[in-house]
Structure to design on (83 residues):
C-alpha cells in the first residue's frame, strides 16, 4: 500500500501531526514517537476501512484526515482494552 502521493518523510511528518491532533482531541498523553506511530498506523487503517466503503483520501490533506480519524479510533480501542 502506498501513501497516495505522499512521500515517506512527509508521511512521518503528517502522521505525527495527525497523531498529535488526535491525542489532544481525545485527551490522551503520549510522546512524539507514539504520536507518529498512531498517526501513520491510523492513516493506513482508516484508508483501508474507508476504501472498503468507497471513500478515498488523496494527498497530504486526505492523509492527515485519515490519520486523525484512524488515530482517534486506535485511542478508543486502547482505552476499551485497558479497562
Amino acid at each position: 500500500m502506498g501513501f497516495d502521493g505522499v512521500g515517506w518523510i512527509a508521511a512521518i511528518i503528517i502522521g505525527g501531526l495527525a497523531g498529535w491532533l488526535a491525542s489532544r482531541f481525545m485527551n490522551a498523553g503520549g510522546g512524539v514517537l507514539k504520536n507518529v506511530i498512531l498517526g501513520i498506523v491510523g492513516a493506513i487503517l482508516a484508508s483501508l476501512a474507508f476504501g472498503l466503503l468507497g471513500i478515498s483520501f488523496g494527498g497530504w490533506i486526505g492523509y492527515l484526515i485519515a490519520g486523525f480519524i484512524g488515530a482517534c479510533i486506535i485511542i478508543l480501542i486502547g482505552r476499551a482494552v485497558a479497562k
